[in-house]
Amino acid sequence: MKTYRSRFLTTLILLVTGVLLTLGIVLGQLFKDFYLDSERDRLKEDAELAALYLDGGDLADIQDYVGQIDDESSFDILLLNRRMEVIAGTPFRVGSFDFRMDASSIPEGGTFGNETREDLIQFTKPIELSSGDTVYLSFIRYVSDLEGVYDRIWLTIALALIFSFFLILFVLHNLTNQFIRPIDEATIVLRELADGNYRARVYELRNDEETGSLAGSINVLARNLETISLGESVQRARLESLIEYMGAGLLLVDERGIVTLVNRSYRDMFQYDELMIGQFYHGILPSPDVETLIEDVYLTEEPHRRQLSIRSGFNQKTYMVSAAPIFSDTGMLRGTTLLFNDISELKRLEKMRKDFVANVSHELKTPLTSIRGFSETLLDGAKEVPELRDQFLDIIQKEATRMQMLVEDLLELSRLEREDFHLEFTPVQLNQLVEEVCLVLSQKAEQKSIHLESRHDGEVVLQADMNRIKQVILNLVANAINYSPEGSQVEIAVEKRPDGSYLIVKDNGIGIAPKEVGRIFERFYRVDKARSRNSGGTGLGLAIVKHIVDLHHATIQVDSVEGEGTTFTIKFPSA
């Protein structure tokens, strides 16, 4: 691509060349005419001098004079009579003339011209002879004799023009370098800016006010564009990052129904890849209901929102799908944006809340019904019978105690779930806590002839909340005693391993079915509901255990074989 500088310089060179050629031709013709005129004047002067010298002389003397003219002379001389016949002349050229002239047309001062010859200059001057007759002296100069002079004139002009051409070319080159090259550089930089390269700059000439001002203005423009572009790039990166990593799945469909954008959350939700971009939406979306939602937006040009159940992998999940139209500045529909919010956890929590309310109501209903029933029986007269009265009061006391335990466990669970709840970490000797729990529960174990065996693999010290860890051990060991048959054994082990400290509670009880293992830490969930209530449990113990373990950044694992027993293993991280 030719630059402005090269085009401008080429135009100037062609213009200068044309001007110089025209000037050379004009000058050459002027010099030629000037030299020709000077030769005519010289010829006239020579003729007049000769005529003045010969005027009044004899014809023979004049003929001798003409005949003595050296043939090396730059001109020829002819002597003519009144009939314009050559009577004398330069010997070697006389015969070459076909000379005709009217003597009456020749004035006394002489005249130029020869109508029959264009290759010569002729001046004819009348001479009065001593005899009174008139002859005519004609001086002739051949134009061909001037060709050498003309050649030298043309050569001189050509050399002068060539020198002038290169001198002008040098000046033009310097001028274009000074004035035009900055424009070329500015053009290149502007083209770079148009292509998006905002780092391009023009070199500023400090000694040139005009081009320096232009370069400075372009550089200011470039810096401003770079700043704007950088800001837009940052905003674009932020927007792309926000879209890509936002928690909700995002899908964009244009006015033709072509998928133009999907973010990471959408791909993770429905196991899609980026190959779906550029495809028509029909048949590639996770549910026909989503396609219907898009079509509704196209038909109504209004936002729509629906709760849809969509299979994601092997799981059926619930999504709140919001679809909204995208309009151009002119109000034309340009596409649809869909936002997928996974509300499965919210639905699960809502179900848990409903189940929790139902379970609490159910757990409170049973003791309240018992208390009310036995109270009414006592009021109806049973209090008069000592045996019935004592029995009913004992039942009322037990049910009230169970209600109190339930409320206390609910309050405990609520405290553990609060965000501002904090544990009091201190060095805790796990071995000592196990021994204390065994001592506390020894009487309960003896009532069922259950042997409590504690096993320690060296001293284990934890950074933990002592009361909460003791609560965990009490709960697990008490459950093991409650669900173990009489005469069995409950083993509590403390082990120190390279990857952490372990607390293991193992019983030989009824065990847990595999389908039940994953739910035993849920609130109010009981494997054997009747047996659990008879043992005085509230159904919240293992839920409390799980929360305390999680707060200590530990893990709890359940291994159980139905009919053989259950093992709870808690792994505490290394200090």
From TrEMBL:
Ranges of residues in domain HAMP: 177-230
Domain spans labelled Histidine kinase: 359-575
Reactions catalysed: ATP + protein L-histidine = ADP + protein N-phospho-L-histidine
Any Gene Ontology biological process: cellular response to phosphate starvation
Keywords in alphabetical order: ATP-binding, Cell membrane, Kinase, Membrane, Nucleotide-binding, Phosphoprotein, Transferase, Transmembrane, Transmembrane helix, Two-component regulatory system
Location of the protein in the cell: Cell membrane
One GO term describing the cellular component: plasma membrane
Stored Gene3D superfamilies: 1.10.287.130, 6.10.340.10, Histidine kinase-like ATPase, C-terminal domain (3.30.565.10), PAS domain (3.30.450.20)
EC number: 2.7.13.3
Keyword Cell membrane: yes
Matching InterPro entries: BphY/WalK/GraS-like, HAMP_dom, HATPase_C_sf, HATPase_dom, His_kinase_dom, HisK_dim/P_dom, HisK_dim/P_sf, PAS
Transmembrane segments: 153-172
SUPFAM superfamilies xref list: ATPase domain of HSP90 chaperone/DNA topoisomerase II/histidine kinase, HAMP domain-like, Homodimeric domain of signal transducing histidine kinase, PYP-like sensor domain (PAS domain)
GO MF, any single term: phosphorelay sensor kinase activity
Principal subcellular localization: membrane
Keyword NAD: no
Membrane topology summary: Multi-pass membrane protein
Cited NCBIfam families: PnpS (NF046044), sensory_box (TIGR00229)
Protein name according to UniProt: histidine kinase
Biological source species: Exiguobacterium chiriqhucha RW-2
